Amino acid sequence: MELITYKTNISSEAALRRVKPYLDHAVGQANWQLDLCISDKKLTVFSPGCVNESRVIKAIRQAGYRAVNIDDYYSIY
């Protein structure tokens, strides 16, 4: 099982509702979770196989938002 976390700019329930259909289609309804209560607005994507990172990021962009892999984000700083 693979687990990847992303820092996003999805900051409200309304934004979450806009992103939901894109993520459901990209990774499956039961394979992601977004925590709006923390400052990173952390999106966790899990899969029994391999998570296609570009597909996740593309789905979020299609909804009008951004995401970056947390490991990549913090390695820059």
Summarize the structure.
It contains three helices and four strands. It has helices at 13-27, 53-62, 70-76, and strands spanning 2-8, 32-35, 42-47, 67-69.
Question: Would you kindly provide a written description of the structure presented here, covering whatever features stand out?
Answer:
By secondary structure, the protein is of the alpha+beta class. Helix content is 42%, strand content 26%. Strands 2-3-1-4 form a 4-stranded antiparallel sheet. A hairpin with a 6-residue loop joins strand 2 (32-35) and strand 3. Helix 1 packs across helix 2 (53-62). The relative contact order is 0.30. The model has no long low-confidence stretch (mean pLDDT 89).
How are the SSEs placed, and which strands pair?
Blueprint: E1 2-8, H1 13-27, E2 32-35, E3 42-47, H2 53-62, E4 67-69, H3 70-76
Antiparallel strand pairs: 1-3, 1-4, 2-3
Compute the number of helices: 3
Strand order of the biggest β-sheet: 2-3-1-4
Report on the biggest sheet: 4 strands, antiparallel
Mean pLDDT: 89
Distance between the termini: 28 Å
Strand content: 25-35%
H-E order: EHEEHEH
Overall spatial form: globular
List keywords for this structure.
77 residues; four-stranded antiparallel β-sheet; 4 strands; 26% strand
